[in-house]
């Protein structure tokens, strides 16, 4: 059974860091295109960072470039998102997702499997 379980969210202050994790089971994460998405209250879901499974090209949404880092941990079959210099605009529910085949250079709109999300709140 394919399952994605996110963890690591919480309440932090502006300027702080968080590391989100997404533990995969039922499949090998390294074989899939992977990504982190977020949805803020009242807004549409957006792709934050994705890695394709053609050449591991990594995409970052403009507002997080230089602050967030996506990475795979093949030993633990886990996806991470290191988030630094957080701002209130980063407040959202963060979801990890995977797609069996994606060769593009952004975040695909349609993913095959989704986690249930972890909430991140940045406030002083």
Topology at a glance:
Blueprint: E1 3-7, E2 10-12, E3 18-25, E4 33-39, E5 46-51, E6 58-60, E7 68-73, E8 78-83, E9 92-99, E10 113-114, E11 118-122
Parallel strand pairs: 2-11
Antiparallel strand pairs: 1-3, 3-8, 4-5, 4-9, 5-6, 7-8, 9-10, 9-11
Please characterize this protein's 3D structure.
- The radius of gyration is 13 Å and the shape is globular.
- Strands 2, 4, 5, 6, 9, 10 and 11 form a seven-stranded mixed beta sheet that branches. A four-stranded antiparallel beta sheet has the order 1-3-8-7, with no helix packed on it.
- The model has no long low-confidence stretch (mean pLDDT 97).
- Helix content is 0%, strand content 48%.
- The protein is mostly beta strands.
- It has no helices and eleven strands.
- Strand 7 and strand 8 form a beta hairpin.
- The protein starts with a strand and ends with a strand.
Describe the structure using short key phrases.
0% helix, 124 residues, mainly beta
Roughly what fraction of the amino acids lie in strands? over 45%
The general outline is globular
How many strands in all?
11
Low-confidence stretches: none
Structural class: mainly beta
Rounded to the nearest angstrom, the radius of gyration is 13 Å
Distance between the termini: 40 Å
* Subunit arrangement of the protein: single chain
What helical percentage do the residues reach?
under 10%
| Topology pattern, helix = H, strand = E | EEEEEEEEEEE
Average pLDDT works out at 97
Largest sheet: 7 strands, mixed
Please give the count of helices: 0
